[in-house]
Amino acid sequence: SPAEENECNRNFPEWACQRKAKLEHLNKKLTSAVEVLQEFAELRDSNQDYSRALAFRRASSVLKSLPFQVQNVEQLKGLKDIGEHVKTVISDVLDHGSSSEVEEILKSEWFKKMKLFTSVFGIGPSTAKAWIERGWENLDDAQKDGCPSGDWRIAWGLAFFEDLNVPVGRIEAIAFSQIVQEEAECILPGVITTLVGGFRRGKSQGHDVDILLSHPTDGAEMGLLPKLIAALGKRGLVLIGHKEKNSFRSDILYQDFKLSARGQLDHFEKWLGICKFPKSFSTPKISKKSKPEINQPTPCTTDTDLKATADSSLDESMNELYEPKAKKTKGSEAIELEPNRISAAPRDWLARRVDLIIAPKSQYYYALVGWTGSKHFNRDARLYAQKKLGLKLTSHGLFNLEKREPLTAQSEEEVFSHLKLPYIDPADRNC
Ligand code: TTP
Ligand code: MN
Ligand code: MN
Ligand code: MN
């Protein structure tokens, strides 16, 4: 009843991180319309001011958590994140089945090109804009120029565009993370391997596979990543990738409270890359017989084997070859030719984006929350921590900047209790 809805709106939690948001909710038609406006604002306003995009994001987040299906805008009375602009859009969708503003955006050539270009691995809104300004219409135009920036991600992202735009299924993601777990356990017994990102929030598909690794003993995780990449390489699962060193520094952390636009970025040691997923990953039962060489769990690579390959040429030389600025060298020919040659050759695998993140145990539960997301959950929780508690939340911890001390956590629940938030299950963090 209207009275009950008004009561519900009055008690509606102000922050997204205080609410439950399941993947399935009652207002999909409305949130997809609002999310087009959000996406348009994010692409258009990148480099300047995300406040318009943020307003749409907050509105759609509210709609996702509402316990009722909106049938008229009166029902939104008292909800502070639903502004007049969003109300107009919602009315249009409710009255006519669609919003003319949304339809215009979806039809616009600029939006279509931005969506296409930003769906390439390594391309953000500013590069996409630069490509449009050069008059490029499609990915062939980008391919013709080779890899203009010399960035390995763009070269391989273009060459494997089709593969990488087929959503990764949950079964594949689990098959791959089990192999990562096996290999990591051989290298570092007791290792903790967790499939994070959208899959941990219950999504059945994703654009990549995010895996967080840690170990009960703080510091034991050091040195794991290069060995793990080498072991996966030995199993024929690595296409191309890049390691980032740990760059966490508490002295810098305590200097500054500002939540930058790049607030999502953290300082963990990680590997961002593209792996080769045998096609059998998505149909594990049938292919176990037809492709035994892939599915048979291969015996662990021994420590001595790993010593031979871990620090060997493979990884380092790949990084050298595909590093930006290698434009006029032999390396850049490899950028321009290799990815396309490999993608065009016959193969029984799909290229899949993989993120491997290494966190020391002392930061693990904050890393787990951060890498579970959603992105909006993180943004909201970080802003909430700053505004309501005067604390800085990152994937490394929760920090009191005045006392210069961290609030450590031994569980995800403890992260939430430090934040004075009710515990929210990963499946309910789809805000
Ligand atoms: P993504 O893989 O970008 O997002 P996702 O897994 O939620 O969605 P998809 O299914 O399309 O892959 O990032 C994983 C989570 O990690 C995301 O929810 C936010 C967080 N994150 C960070 O904390 N730091 C980072 O640098 C990035 C890229 C993401
Ligand atoms: Mn992901
Ligand atoms: Mn991503
Ligand atoms: Mn990711």
UniProtKB/TrEMBL annotation:
Q: Where along this sequence does the record place binding of Mg(2+)?
A: D208, D210, D355
Q: Which UniProt keywords apply?
A: Magnesium, Metal-binding, Nucleotidyltransferase, Nucleus, Transferase
This protein's record includes keyword Metal-binding: yes
Obligatory cofactor(s): Mg(2+)
Give a yes or no for keyword ATP-binding in this entry.
Answer: no
UniProt GO cellular component terms = nucleus
Predominantly, its location class is nucleus
* GO molecular function per UniProt: DNA binding; DNA-directed DNA polymerase activity; metal ion binding
The segment annotated Disordered runs over 286-305
Write out the biased-composition intervals (Polar residues).
293-303
User: In its UniProt record, which GO terms are filed under biological process?
Assistant: double-strand break repair via nonhomologous end joining
Q: Where found in the cell?
A: Nucleus
Q: Which family does it belong to?
A: Belongs to the DNA polymerase type-X family.
Q: What is this protein called?
A: BRCT domain-containing protein
From which source organism is this entry? Elysia crispata
